[in-house]
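Predict the 3D structure for this chain.
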Amino acid sequence: MLGRNGLVLRGGFRFGPDEAAPPGPAGLPARSILLVGQAGGAPWPHFLRWRREQPPDLADPLDDWARQVIGAVAAEFGARSVSPSDRPYLPFQQWAMRAEGLRPSPLGILMHPRYGLWHAYRGALLFDVEIPVQAPREVIHLCDLCVGKPCLKSCPADAHSGGGFAYQACLDHVRGTAGEACRTTGCLDRNACPHGAAYRYPADEQAFHMAAFMR
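Done. Predicted structure below.
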């Protein structure tokens, strides 16, 4: 089911007995978790086919699609599915770092040794039982090897050049006349990163994400 929709398992781990784990399918603290996500733009054509059959006024269609796909897998395997957009928010980035041994890039996106910045987490499966989970292997953090840091120098609004993400400056630029390139081809800082270029999202997918950012 996941592979047929361009999604992949992104690792997992077992919760310790003293951790504040979210509820599993039985309502008790979950014992294990598997993360589900994408590597590159593989899910995009599957999402577009689904989107054409849905009402045009969906507020968050990509989240809805991912919930439907991952929820069906959860039902098949006796798990509970959760989403990064669920409220209250769940610590997906911390889970991802623990499951895959990744670290954040200067843009805040986790840097993957193969996919670069072109990957995402679309949900997770929570289990009431302990399941076999492979420990993450040690990975090279590519940002440590990057001398030029082009991801900090390509944004006309300098959204990532200071201390943290300058959200309002980015939003104002993207919404303005000078932000057409960002709206149509995606974040210039993200696209400037040389790693994982083969997995770069297609332009229309990047435009979709930028439109969601501007709402």
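Residues 144-214 form one domain.
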